[in-house]
Amino acid sequence: MLVYEGIKSSFIEDVDLNVITEKIYEKYKSVFGRTSQNEINSWKNSMQHMRGVLSDRQIPDDAGIAVEFNIPLTSKRIDFIVSGRDEREKDSVIIVELKQWEECEAVSGKDGIVNTFVGGAKRNVTHPSYQALSYANLIRDFNQTVQDEDINIIPCAFLHNYYLKQDDPICSEMYKEYIDRAPMFGHDDVLKLRNFVRQFIKSGDNKEVLYRIENGKLRPSKMLQDTLAKMLQGNKEFTMIDEQKVIFEEAKALANDAVDHGKKKVLVVEGGPGTGKTVVAINLLVELINEGFTSMYVTKNAAPRNVFEEKLKGTYKKNYINHLFKGSGSFINTLPNEINCLIVDEAHRLREKEMLSKGENQIKEIIRSAEFSVFFIDEAQKVTAKDIGSIEMIKKYADEFNAEYQIAYLTSQFRCNGSDGYLAWLDDVLDIRQTANFDFGDLDIDYDFKVFDDPNEMFEAIREKNKTNNKSRVVAGYCWEWEKNTQNDPNVFDIRIPEYQFEKSWNLNNTTTWAIDSESINEIGCIHTCQGLEFDYTGVIIGNDLRYENDQVITDFTKRAKSDKTLDGLKGKAKKKDPEALKEVDRIIRNTYKTLMTRGMKGCYIFCLDKQLNAYFKKKIEKRH
After folding, report:
1. CB within 8 A of 327, min separation 6: which ones?
2. pLDDT tens digits, residue range 412-430?
């Protein structure tokens, strides 16, 4: 959908008459609702600069111009588009990513990420060239008109307030591949950008190409299908067995039926830790893309998205497939049934709204947007106050959209050495629910569970396990502060336990793939870096938010770090002894530790800050019979 469309001559006239911003705003408001004053100001600024670029006789007056092109399948928008034909009369579209930035910093260890001032604070965001390239890839991979008619999509970025310096961080070697494929222009590069436009737009199209792209049918390209098939082939981490394969085939059949007959369908797949929800989800993504369906893998938490992108891509660059992995807030503005299939992993982590209070309800938005949606869920892994994903709510919105609803179950345990007994024991020992598995020592299971009296010894034991295949990590409850200004400094020790001379850093903020980074064995992860992922061994440091007092396991929300946001909205009520809030914070803390203690496939080592809790766990693993 185009917010503003015209030809070069009418665009320049609208800018000169000072009506361009009003025209953009009125159309934007009618489609998306009101926007911020900052965005309105950015239109005023950017359109003047683009007018300067296009004010050249050699750029045809009837070249197509579009502003704020909403990319199908997403809530993302392309800032500026110029369309026409090149010297061989080949249809060409130039994508221009516009930025108001004045400076930025490079971010090492994160692919295509820079740090700059946006939205009132310094934030990590995608490099402008990476962003433009990913938008171009999305259009190439999913627009049938672009594929069939071989329309040339050319991405670039224009930082019109940015004075690019020699050795500027934004031009560093780590971004070279993206800048090569999507050139970047600064404040002093107007002539260079003008020549770039001239190179591809020799004759105008009277915005005809824009119209064809806007109305093009959505389907995955053959190149994307072939690429994904090669990525999955022989990748043992994504091999399905037993009921995983059964549910995969059922989901595939439902997707085909929904798309072929125009009947919206919703599938819920319920399964505990280690039952293979993600294995099925990734296989579904690849298979449905290969069958020609527009499909995406969705999670609230970025950690699993980034890790599975990395594991799936193999020797390919991440930008080949990154547009297939989406955050759960990506479907605020998508049209009803715009996407064939949405595959939602960790559905218990879905929220009412995105971080900036955008959207209405993520479950509703996902079901509305897709002809077929599948939700992989474990309600016992809700670990923040804002997690609202539930089977009941999914069913509610399926009914609201008159969708056929179905539920399936993954029950076989493939993590924790296939031990349902261990999971039941955890429920009992953490007082989540009473089970028949009181004592670990009496369970006939091959799972390595140890309690350590010294966190240093536990850390070294996990480090030793990690030497085998880089699949062991240490994690902890969120009981230590994570100071904002030192989150990238490995020499700052956030987690200190003085009596044991134990000092470690929280996971550094300069990577999106902590779970598989070779150096992250030296750091300690939290629930947000490991939920939805698995290791061979996990070491868990249990903070003072979980203790053993008066012969019972208790929780204490006051021992959580101030930087922990998982209890936002509950702490104040809990301090006033609100019974519902107290019940909810208790559930979240217990669920958090259960989730941390079920990341290891072969074993879990723990150290408890509370000595009585350590003794309690030791007693529970003694063999009694």
Report:
1. 298, 299, 300, 302, 305, 354
2. 666 565 567 788 888 888 9
